Each structure stands twice: as C-alpha cells, then as structure tokens.
Amino acid sequence: MAEKPVSLLGRLAVHNKLITIDQLAEATREQGRRQDGTNLGEILLELGFINERKRDLLLKAQREMLAKSRAKQAAANAAPGLEADPAPAAEQNSTPADPISSPASTPMAEATPQRPAEPSPPQPAAPQPQPVRQPANQQQTSTAPQTTDSSQPEPAPAIKQRASLEMSAVAVEPNEADRARFDQTLTDLVARGASDIHIHGGAPIKLRVNGGLQQDSSDILSASDAERLVLSGLTPEQRSSFASDGELDLCYAIDGVGRFRANIYRQHRGVDGVFRFIPQTPPSLEELGLPMSIAKFTNYHQGMVLCTGPTGCGKSSTLAALVDLINEERKEHILTIEDPIEYVHVSKRCLVNQRSVNHHTESFARALRAALREDPDVIVIGELRDLETISLALSAAETGHLVIATLHTNNAIRTINRLIGAFPADQQGQIRTMMSESLRAVVSQRLIPRADGQGRVAAVEKLVITKAVGNLIRENKTFQIHSILQTGASQGMCLMDESIKAHLLAGTITKEDAQANCEHPSSLEG
Q: What are the domain boundaries of the chain?
C-alpha cells in the first residue's frame, strides 16, 4: 500500500514556521485515521495548530502555486517539438482531487527556477467547497516521484522564495485595538502585583505573584487571540525576525507603568509570550530588603563584584541598585551591556551609557572588547554567559575597571568554581591567580516567601575576597572557603544558611520554606 505523500499545504505551513514537523505528522495521522474526506487544512484548524485566517490563506497560496505550476507545464507541453503528456488517470477518471492531497503538489519539488511572484495582500480567500479526498489505501497514479520524509528534494530556489513571499501574508496582523487591549492587560496585571505574566494560547492568562503561579481568570484565550495579543506589542522588524526565527527576546515599555523583559516563542499550540515587569526607576537596597552592608561593594574602583543566584531571585534588581548607588555618589563613566536593557538609568552624577545585545552590539564579548576603548570606569555586564565573556571581564577587572556582573550559581563557592571551570585545564592555574587578585566580592541571593504571604524576603550570602580567601582560590582549595564564611562576620561575610536561619528566628519565613532553601537543614536547629 502506498503511503500518502506530504501535501503541498503541509509543506507550505512548515516552511513558513506556522506549524512544526511534529504537528504536521500528527495532523496527517489524524487525516489517515478518519478517511472521511476531511482535508488537511480543516484538521490543522480542529487541532488548534492554525486559525481560520491562516487556513484560508494557506489554501489560497496552495491554489495559486498549483495554478502557476500547471500553467508552466502546459506551456512547456505546447512548445514546438514537445509532445503533451496525457493527463494522469486520477484526473481523467475521478472527481476533482483534494488540492491538499493531489499528486499535482509534486511540481513544488520539481519545478524549474522562475521569477518569484509579487506577494499578494493579506486578504482571506473566499471559502471553497471541500472536495472528496481519495481513500488512504488507494494507489497513487501520479507519474512524478513522491516521498514522505525529510529526504524529499529541496524546492528550487525561485519556487522556495516565491512560497516565502506568498506566505508572508499568513501571519496575524494585529491592529491598534489589539495594542490597546494588550497594554491594558499588562497594566491591570501589574497592578495586581504580578512579577511575570504568561499569555498562552488555549489557556487563561497566568501571572506570578510572590513567586507562585496563579490563574488570572477562567477565560480561555484561543490560539489566534493569544497570537494577536502577543504580536500587537512588536514592531514590523520584530515581527519579521520572529517569523523567521520562531522566538524573540525584547523589552517592551508602557508609559507610566514600566518596562517588560519579554520572550515570544512558538510552541505546540501556537504563539506564547512571557513578560517580566521592570519598574520605571531602579530600586534601592532598602526597597529590596537587602543588607545595607552590600553598599560598600560600590566603593571599589577596580576589580570584579558578582551578583549570583537562580533564575527569578532578583539578581537584576540588585545589580540595578548597585549601579544607581554609583550613579548618585561618583563622577565616572558607567557602561552597561545587557540582553535586553532592563532598568533604564538616567545620568545623575555619572555618565551612563547602556547597550543592548543584538540591537546595539552583536554579543557581550564584542561589546566588552569595544568597551576597553570607550573610557569606562564601571562596566556592568548583564550575564557572564560564555568563556570569552568571562575572560574579557576578568581582563577588564585586571586593567583598572570595576566590573559588576551576574551569574546563575547558587552560592559563592560554586560561583568561583564555575568561573574557573569554564576554562581549559591548562589555563585554570593562571585564571585562579587572576581571580585571587581581581575578584572583590560575591553576593548570592534567593527569594523566600514571607510567612504572612505579603511578598518575599531575600536571603543573602556575602563573600568578601580577603587575602586568606585569595590564597585559597590560588591554591585550588575553595572548599575551605566555607569555614571562612562561617567565621567572617566581622569582615562582612555571611553564609546563606545563616541568613535563612536569621529570617526564621525573626518569624519572617516558615520553617518549611527555610528547610527547603537551606543547603544544610540541620544548621537550623539549635
């Protein structure tokens, strides 16, 4: 029994990233199970993979491509010296075939290059009567070769380009009403205390409040409604980038409310967006509930200060608070490199320049190389992501700059080991020496729900790089730093477990949450 070939409509939808290969396979299997004449476009619609507008435009693009391919074939057959091929038996002896499963879809893979057609405006095609599909077990009669897997030949360049142009109209086109609704939705949810907002097709909007995820209402967003809502916040350039990549990082601002660090992405059921709220002005250490002793780390004029912790622990806010302190107290040049820019710093006593990766510069590493020629006094790095960025940050700290950066590690000792371990083994001895001389302090933090349910409180581990700590780093004895943290209170040091225990004794957090966040729960006793 011949397998049903992958349809032109399915290939167009995958090529333009409207659905995934897995979604196409699921829809094709469902079509084979039914055997009732339902075409692939209707099945994709029923499964929620596309909306009605996309289905209609997909069918329109398919019809136009098939018509152009047939016209070209007819012209070739009518040329002098060429004998016209007889029509396939399936077209002579049966009712019109489904445009999705018709053997005529094969010219997409076999057509010769030709000039791309101009893209048609994004207007829905008129509904067409659905023809009867051939039974799944009927032998295909097309003389053209068919294939059912990814080994199918790539479309000719001109045809592939034309498909991309014609399918550019399939994307949802939000209007000003969608934009206004989107802004109002974010504004209302921020007023309810949300730190993160999840807009998800096929589900209600979710928001994170005090670290917990909760449902906004019982109203379920359809896949198309969620897509219109999310895409309404993008510029035309951002929509184009999202259409080609399937995901996008950006920062979105609402006047009078604040900024949102956002990620838009395609997933199994459609287009989703996650938006993290960033207040309009940088917070202070006091507003964040952090110990004021951290403020002394802004007094360094060279070296490296690191803010670390797991995702969602407030590293970016702590970084912004330290930068704001420097901005208020010193007369220097502050250069930030972020992805994307989160808190916007207005120049106060300092000159503040902020650069966004993928918008103002190609990468963290490239911006850091350029930074050394831009006369900065303080370099702020949104995240130490890779070996090159870490290496350049250490070099900047060694050459007389204050470098403040974040890293995804759980405590101070793991932070040091992570930085050293990023380098090849034959370079680690040199890096230990550089870190022992350049590292100034490590602040590790995590947020724990308050016992009264009114927000979260920060537990903080502080490591100050003294001569004793520097020697341990140089000699590869970082495991002994733990004992120095235990006894270094007079030098401003504190273990994470000690900070958690202090919150527990003060009644700020519950014992269950304290034990869940402690590395050594037994330290809470006594």
A: 1-77+155-170, 176-278, 285-524
